[in-house]
Specification:
alpha/beta; Quinone Oxidoreductase, Chain A, domain 1; seven-stranded mixed sheet; globular; oxidoreductase activity, acting on NAD(P)H; oxidoreductase; GroES-like_sf
Length: about 325
């Protein structure tokens, strides 16, 4: 594969709104030991990208300053010590950054084969959400078959992934969403019930079911205290973002009396080895179901790479259902 010296990228010109995303030219990165270079076909668009764009989520010191935490494409080159991948292999990958570009570097152990029969645009929508959901819902919260699982933002990329994986593993799934259309989408994916948070109280709804055993939340703010009320005894609250803020006043007595667990994580700062462990689990436990078509990423809209600003505006407008991707090649 012929590799040029420069490539088209989308960079963050300064902290701000979607308009600060601008096309630019940059050198093509070179994979180091244990890394691969991917010729990007599509790149996923995720909330952390918008946080980075706004100046609220700095990339790790050794990561590309460009946004983009997942992509799908073909291996263009491999670094020293890489044995699994060869030039031309179709992969989907978790990235430390740099996805909004024609080429991206990642660790070889953070790439997975594109599931058999899956289109590249869908493959680009896998890694950020599947890594996040798997590690938080199944590794940290240990969701079991038959347990009641509530996911907030059920129509988001995280939400649509969580609903499908939890239902696949035999949990009773509930979701919140902000419109009848979004609630219907959640139920089509496997939610037993979707609660329109503009019209109903999810706390009352879950307590009527006996409480949630696991809640996955990215809202924060006043949802945190409400989540604690909605949990069943021995319930687990997993926090993965704070769209409404992380600083709240809480009475933690219920945590003690009902043996509740409050936990959470972010994906990007985790070690290379930790992410490789998640990748291996996904390949063993989830990739066969993707290849069989039992589950699939829910696709919202595709934008050209150079229209990344419009993609961010759509994501932050919260009208989308599922994943937004950028077409790169």
């Amino acid at each position: 594969m012929s590799i040029p010296s420069t490539m088209t990228v989308v960079e963050i010109t300064e902290p701000g709104g979607p308009e600060v995303l601008r096309p630019a030219t940059a050198p093509v990165p070179v994979p180091g030991p244990g890394q691969i270079l991917i010729r990007t076909a599509y790149a996923g668009v995720n909330r952390p990208d918008a946080l980075q764009r706004a100046g609220n989520y700095a990339p790790p010191p050794d990561a590309s300053p460009l946004p983009g935490l997942e992509c799908a494409g073909h291996v263009a080159a491999v670094g020293a010590g890489v044995t699994r991948w060869r030039e031309g292999d179709a992969v989907t990958a978790l990235l430390p950054g740099g996805g909004y570009a024609e080429y991206a570097v990642t660790w070889a152990d953070h790439a997975l084969p594109v599931p058999e029969g899956m289109a590249m645009d869908a493959a680009a929508a896998l890694c950020e959400t599947y890594f996040t959901v798997w590690t938080n819902v199944f590794m940290r919260a240990d969701l079991q078959a038959g347990e009641r699982f509530l996911v907030h933002g059920g129509s988001s990329g995280i939400g649509t992934t969580a609903i499908q994986l939890a239902a696949l593993r035999g949990a009773r799934v509930f979701a919140t969403a902000g419109s009848a259309e979004k609630c219907a989408a959640c139920e089509r994916l496997g939610a037993e019930a979707a609660i329109n948070y503009r019209e109903a109280d999810f706390v009352a709804a879950m307590r009527a079911e006996g409480g949630a055993n696991v809640i996955l939340d990215m809202v924060g703010g006043d949802y945190i205290a409400r989540n604690i009320k909605a949990l069943a005894t021995d319930g687990r609250l997993v926090q993965i973002a704070f769209l409404q803020g992380s600083k709240v006043s809480l009475d933690l007595m219920q945590v003690m009396l009902r043996r509740l667990t409050i936990t959470g994580s972010t994906l990007r700062p985790q070690s290379v080895a930790a992410k490789a462990t998640i990748a291996r689990a996904l390949e063993a436990e989830v990739w066969p179901h993707l290849a069989a078509g039992r589950i699939a990423p829910v696709m919202d809209q595709t934008f050209a790479l150079t229209d990344a600003a419009a993609a961010h505006a759509r994501m932050e407008g919260s009208t989308h259902i599922g994943k937004i991707v950028l077409k790169v090649a």
